[in-house]
Amino acid sequence: MNKIGSLIFVLVALNLATSQVIKIPIEKRIPETETNGSFLDDDQQVAVAQLINHDQYMYSGNIEVGNSKQTYTVDFDSGSNLLWLTSKNCPSCVKDGYKHSYDCTPEDGCTLTTTPAQVTYGDGSGVKGHIAKVPVSIAGIAPVTEALLLVEQSIRNGNLQADGLMGLGVYDENNTGNVAFVNQLFKQGLITKSQFSFYLGFGKTESELTIGGVDESKLANPSEIYYHPLVLNGRTDDSQRWRVAFKSISFGNKQIPMTSQNTGIVDSGTSLAYIRNDIYKEWINYLKTITKLNPIFQGLSVFYSVKCGTTLPDLTFTLTDVNGVDRNYSLPSSFYILNQSGTCILGIQGNSVTGDLQFLLGDVFMRRFVSVFDYTSLSMGLSVSVANPASAVVTKNHRNGHLALLAIGLVALAGLIFLTLRALRK
Question: Which comes out higher in pLDDT, residue 345 or 5?
Answer without folding.
Answer: 345
